[in-house]
Specification:
Chain lengths: ~900, ~400
């Protein structure tokens, strides 16, 4: 059997009967541009052309390629690039880039079909959505993708201009050249697969893996159980086997008879809360893992409830007393209720994956991470090695969102296996594993009460939360709400409780604790506004004295959607439109110990830092920061990241990437520039040299920087970011990844416009408008892309995403993207993002991060919009069709206009 | 070449009927189950069977479709769209474009259940050789509305629903004809979703002659715009003459163990004018049937009632409520994303003055070269860009050696 791949013949020899094209391309042919995302044909990352027709190679049997021609992204690497690729670069139709090859392949096929049928013309959004329905972008780059495809079809990129856009590595992403950890191939690399618990709660005896290791092609097995040999959730890692390929490894695992001694399991929150004794974790809270990214002090444990230290309350006793009295007080207006959120799976399209190689002296690790420096330290510790013996690399990360902020079991297993076998080993989660233990935002139940009795501000607020982080603590919803509370002067009581269940451990997800807290709090405020008969924005503005927040509200009040808002009672008909508002708040976080090195040499400028690229444009931020100082284009700067041996760089967690890295990059560039000017005088004898864009002017003329880099000795500077002067900063270390939190308050206001189909229960987002006060925006086009992505993830949280577990067995039910619904391009509303400045002058660099701020208020705004549309207030996220129909007061009878005009003739 | 004991690629229907193993056509269902470890063992690959991927038309204008025809072909063939509009709409409204290009009609009719227990390697339910249904006492919100079987998951096939509505016949092994009802049975058998025995292969689907003047619509109730397994789906075919309905076929999917024709709804439509009131009254009969479930999925029944509107409005048509002017606007840009990245300073003037007084001077930041053509910087209040640069307060920068 023979196929043609990108014009070259390829003999299909020795393939398995059920092997699919994606394995043939990636593993046998070394064409790693095509990505494996879900393996279920849903995400489209594996899309290739088979005789020009896009197909999902993860479901395409290899035998079906016989006699057919396959084209992959590698075929589109010519000098000029296809108009679609140039459009993707120009319109920033990507973030992490993992899904980009699939999108490019599909869009190229659409472009060719569209041109053949319509010539040079812009397609409608519906036509593009229909064509791209088989693709998902977890980062949420849909805005740029729509623009890119439309503009390419409309002829904007036919002219062959060189590709240009805001993201410096975009050309590598649209050609599939960007190498992710999952693409790394080392000579002799084995495939490691984790052995996972099938029971939600059990003790495990000694695991006899002899039968597995005896299988041909299997190299070894390691036991990964903790000292107490107890598993606490389905999927918990017991050990790992390394074999020639994944199929052999899976066969080997099936031969291992794990000696489980099952224990009673508490998989459901209700059962956990009801149990008197501790059934999930008996060792006290000190050894409980944490699902939070902050270091959370352990607290009291009673039964399966863990009570973390409650901070964030202000005059909490008074608040509770007033609320207790409120029920009797007739003058008080009280809004209260219980709000619930679902667990939200990160499901980054690149799964957790690590390739580790040990040769007896040095450990070389490639891992998909968002915290390169921290993970390098943790890997050294896990391997029992000196930091200098460990080299860690991560050039591109295919999405993270908080799930890859530290070392996880893929890395532990890969390191243990390679150190035992002295052969490179890769451990990669598949999509069901990613959904099972790859991480999720814990579900939260929040009981909120807020009371107003005629004063300028509410007289009391209380929020009690129960977080289900699985067999872990870390629900800090009240604490985060308290720390970032935007409404000053209100007596407030916050209390958090972790409910321990025999479920996989939650992990921080973009705006951890913030999003669920905001869901409840902003809905309660909306409820209070409704009861008081006040405009919800004016009400918040009245409570808020911070000037930049008041300015955000002013801006929101000006929006046409808000001015044209009508109350729920005024809505009628089947399709009802509503608009809702929510305020968002987050902290200003950064790594004071961020270092950036800028150096010059004959080849030009280089900027380097041991940080990573998860889609938040760290490369572009570094390049632009340095390029701006020299007045050169960003592409003239060579960026080195992704290598833990470089000077220490920041994590991309807690929104601290840009806020950490831009300032030292600019400062280091300035130092180098100053040094070069000094040398221009001393070494070249230039008189009165001064820097101008692109070079140096002196009394005798002008020299370009490129010339100076060649002539002058190399210069280099390393600058540490340090902390903000005159900003109270809290600094703490988490696994030696020092994080600083500064007391300036980035703020956001979000308006959402939705249309509710009251007969089907479907909520369609029409518009989202968000305004952010973060001070300086380091790179507006890229910042906007990131905000769009956060808004889209917020819509997913509000409308679609729900991690589901079978309560009887503790097994995960939403094991793939068929059942776990990510937001898709066809449901994209019109999104407007504005930046409103704000007083952040004290912050080094001038601006705070907005990766999480941009998501915080989105779900509550959608819920408040649904209330405005229907008079029914959603209490549970996601707002599914069933919940809407259950909640609506009555289903309206059809009006004459409901049925579109008489059935159109054939 | 390939693992011979594991894979047999057949080239005749006889070989297919005799070969041992699980049948694989396009692979879109098969490979998904393989990858998720709910299928194993020998494979019988039939995608090379000759003569089964054509659409033939007889003298009555009726279509005969080979079971290896892809769904994309069925959705886009102009003559099929004309003769059997509901079928084409259903074929074009399921899954994703890539999957439709690979999936076959036969595979689509015979695909396995999409219950999340049945598709999970840890649950051996009736559908996988076990002896219980986990969904019945577990999470069954995607379950049937009509409880007629020990298995409670609905039939997954959209094409099955459409072909029932078109009263198609299927040919088995090129020799024997059956109705769709005979193919699927009544769904009472919890171990499978069709009644083909081992050695039986679907070869052709025969449609009846097209009905003159037929209008048809397919609708899928899902949360997102497309590419989602149906909560409920329905297809309606109508003929209207002299202002009354003279012909009606109404089928619904994703609510029962087999796709169903709603004959009582059809009967209620005949002779009625197609007005909002009569359609609603007929649709309300949809939930009448044997043994409705009193589970949360009863909600699904109300879906069926609510969207059984025999309208040709496709789910991808103009969304009601969207202002018309937006769509009629400038075709050169996508109406939608308005980039108003306002850089204007929203601090009040008073605050600016106070701030300047407090600081003495307004500190800037060292980006000194502006003028990039595509985008502007956001600057803290009061800063201006002065060519020639501004010396930063480098004396206060502490440069530390990076930690070892």
């Amino acid at each position: 059997m023979e196929t043609h791949i990108n014009g070259r013949p390829y003999v299909l020899d020795g393939v398995r009967g059920d092997e699919t094209a994606v394995e043939l391309l990636r593993d046998r042919s070394g064409l790693t541009g095509t990505k494996l995302g879900c393996g279920a044909g849903v995400c489209g990352a594996c899309t290739v052309h088979v005789e020009g027709t896009p197909m999902v190679s993860c479901l395409l049997p290899v035998q079906h390629l016989d006699g057919r021609a396959v084209t992959t992204i590698e075929a589109y690497r010519g000098n000029d690039l296809h108009p679609v690729q140039r459009a993707f670069i120009a319109r920033d139709a990507m973030q992490c880039g993992y899904c980009t090859p699939g999108y490019v392949m599909e869009s190229i096929a659409f472009f060719e079909r569209w041109r053949a049928e319509h010539g040079v013309a812009a397609p409608s959004r519906e036509a593009i959505a229909d064509a791209l329905a088989g693709h998902l972008c977890r980062c949420g780059s849909y805005v740029g993708i729509y623009e890119a495809v439309s503009d390419a079809c409309a002829g904007r990129f036919d002219g062959g201009e060189p590709p240009a856009g805001p993201r410096v590595e975009a050309a590598d992403k649209v050609t599939g050249r960007a190498q992710y950890t999952v693409d790394v191939r080392l000579e002799g690399m084995l495939e490691g697969v984790l052995l996972r618990s099938r029971h939600p709660h059990a003790t495990i005896g000694t695991i006899d893996a002899a039968a597995a290791v005896a299988l041909p092609g299997v190299a070894g097995f390691v036991d990964l159980l903790p000292a107490d040999r107890t598993v606490r959730y389905v999927g918990q890692e017991l050990g790992a086997v390394a074999a020639a390929d994944r199929a052999t490894a899976l066969r080997a695992l099936s031969l291992i008879d794990v000696p489980y001694s099952p224990l009673p399991a508490t998989a459901s929150v209700a059962a956990a809360r009801a149990a008197r004794q501790s059934t999930v974790f008996k060792h006290g809270s000190l050894r409980l893992p944490s699902s939070s990214e902050y270091v959370t002090p352990p607290g009291r444990v009673r039964g399966n409830l863990h009570f973390p230290l409650s901070v964030g309350s202000r005059r909490g006793g008074r608040a509770r007393r007033m609320l207790a009295r409120a029920k009797d007080a007739t003058s008080a207006v009280l809004a209260e209720g219980t709000w619930r959120t679902a667990a939200q799976i990160h499901s980054a399209l690149e799964p957790h994956v690590t390739v580790a190689s040990w040769d007896g002296r040095e450990l070389c690790v490639h891992t998909s991470t968002q915290s390169l420096h921290l993970v390098a330290n943790q890997i050294a510790a896990a391997a029992g090695l000196e930091r200098g013996q460990v080299k860690v690399y991560c050039q591109y990360t295919g999405g993270a969102f908080g799930a890859k902020g530290r070392i996880w079991e893929d890395a532990v297993a890969a390191v243990r296996l390679t150190m035992a076998l002295k052969v490179p080993v890769r451990v990669r989660f598949d999509r069901p594993e990613e959904h099972l233990t790859g991480g999720y935002r814990p579900a939260v139940e929040a009981q909120v009460a807020i009371m107003a009795d005629g004063g300028k501000r509410p007289s009391a607020l209380s929020m009690t939360t129960y977080a289900d982080s699985g067999a872990a603590r870390g629900g800090w919803t009240g604490v985060i709400a308290g720390l970032d509370f935007p409404y000053a002067g209100i007596p407030r009581h916050f209390r958090d409780i972790d409910v321990l269940t025999n479920n996989a451990q939650g992990k921080p997800f973009r705006g951890p604790n913030g999003v669920p807290g905001n869901w409840a709090l902003e809905a309660a405020i909306d409820e209070l506004a409704a009861k008081l008969g006040r405009d919800p924005i004016l009400l918040r503005q009245q409570w808020n004295e911070s000037p930049h927040r008041r300015a955000l509200y002013e801006q929101a009040l000006r929006q046409a959607a808000w001015r044209e808002r009508t109350p729920p009672e005024a809505k009628h008909g089947r399709f009802r439109r509503g608009v809702g508002v929510a305020a968002g708040s987050w902290g200003h976080n950064f790594n004071a110990d961020t270092f950036v090195q800028v150096s010059t040499g004959p080849a030009g400028l280089t900027v380097s830092s041991a940080t990573q690229e998860i889609g938040t444009a760290m490369r572009s931020l570094l390049a632009e920061a340095v390029a701006g100082v020299f007045g050169l284009p960003a592409l003239a700067v060579s960026v080195q990241i992704g290598d833990a041996q470089l000077v220490r760089g920041p994590s991309n967690t807690a929104s601290r990437g840009a806020a950490s890295v831009v300032y030292p990059a600019e400062q280091a560039a300035l130092k180098v520039r100053t040094e070069l000017l000094r040398q221009a005088t001393s070494a070249l004898g230039l008189r009165a040299p001064r820097a101008v864009p692109g070079g140096v002017e002196h009394d005798g003329g002008r020299l370009a920087w490129a010339e100076l880099f060649r002539q002058l000795p190399a210069a280099s500077a390393v600058v540490r970011r340090g902390r903000d002067k005159r900003v109270p900063t809290l600094r703490f270390r988490l696994d030696n990844d020092g994080m600083s939190i500064g007391r300036v308050h980035p703020g956001a206001v979000t308006l959402a416009v939705v249309e509710v189909d009251t007969r089907l229960g479907r909520v369609k987002p029409l518009e989202v408008w968000s305004c952010f006060a973060v001070g300086r925006v380091y790179h507006p086009p890229l910042a906007r892309s990131q905000c769009y992505g956060a808004i889209i993830q917020g819509l997913g949280f509000a409308l679609n995403e729900e991690r589901r577990v079978d309560p009887a067995s503790g097994q995960l039910l939403t094991i793939n993207l068929n059942d776990y619904h990510l937001p898709a391009i066809g449901s994209l509303p019109d999104i407007t993002v504005e930046f409103a400045g704000g007083d952040f002058e004290q912050v080094r660099g001038g601006g705070a991060g907005l990766a999480e701020l941009s998501m915080i208020g989105v779900p509550a705004a959608v819920a408040n919009a649904v209330y405005n549309a229907t008079g029914w207030r959603p209490r549970e996220a996601p707002i599914t069709l069933a919940r809407v129909l259950a909640g609506l007061p009555e289903i309206p009878a059809p009006a004459a206009g409901d049925i579109a005009e008489a059935v159109s003739p054939r | 070449m390939t693992n011979a004991p594991e894979l047999t690629q057949v080239t005749t229907v006889e070989q297919a009927a005799q070969a041992k193993g699980e049948i694989r056509a396009g692979g879109t269902d098969f490979q998904d189950r393989r990858r998720h470890q709910v299928s194993s063992g020998p494979i019988v690959d039939i995608h090379r069977l000759p003569g089964l991927s054509a659409i033939d038309w007889d003298e009555r204008g009726a279509a005969r479709i080979g079971t290896l025809t892809t769904l994309t072909t069925i959705a886009s063939d102009p003559r099929l769209r004309d003769a059997y509009p509901g079928l084409a709409q259903a074929a074009g409204g399921l899954a994703t474009p890539q999957i439709r290009a690979m999936a076959t009609l036969g595979g689509s009719l015979l695909q396995r259940s999409r219950c999340w227990y049945a598709r999970h390697p840890e649950f051996r339910c009736y559908q996988r050789g076990g002896d219980r249904c986990f969904a019945r006492d577990g999470e069954h919100e995607h379950g049937v509305v009509f409880d007629t079987s020990p298995c409670v998951h609905p039939h997954p096939s959209t094409m099955g629903m459409a072909l029932i509505g078109y009263e198609a016949l299927v040919e088995v092994n090129g020799a024997q004809w059956r109705t769709m009802e005979q193919l699927y049975g009544d769904g009472s058998d919890p171990t499978r979703d069709h009644r083909l025995e081992e050695g039986e292969l679907l070869t052709t689907v025969q449609l009846p002659p097209p009905v003159a003047g037929e209008r048809a619509a397919y609708f899928r109730a899902i949360q997102r715009r497309e590419a989602e397994w149906a909560i409920v789906e329905a297809m309606t075919r109508l003929c209207v003459q002299d202002g009354v309905i003279t012909f009606a076929r109404v089928t619904v999917g994703a609510v029962a163990r087999v796709p169903r024709r709603l004959k009582h709804v059809e009967a209620a439509l005949i002779g009625q004018p197609p007005t909002a009131v009569t359609l609603e009254q007929a649709a309300a009969l949809a939930t009448a049937g044997p043994a409705p479930c009193h589970t949360p999925s009863t909600r699904c029944a109300s879906f069926a009632a609510r969207f059984l509107r025999p309208s040709s409005e496709r789910r991808s048509a103009v969304h009601p409520g969207r202002p018309v002017d937006r769509l009629a606007g400038d075709q050169q840009r996508i109406p939608g994303v308005r980039e108003l990245a306002c850089q204007r300073d929203l601090l009040s003037a008073a605050h600016r003055r106070r701030h300047k007084e407090r600081c003495g001077r307004v500190r800037g930041h060292p980006r000194v070269f502006s003028g990039k053509p595509d985008w502007k910087h956001s600057r803290p209040s009061g800063t201006t860009s002065r060519p020639g640069g501004r010396t930063p307060r480098s004396s206060s920068n502490r440069t530390r050696r990076p930690p070892a």
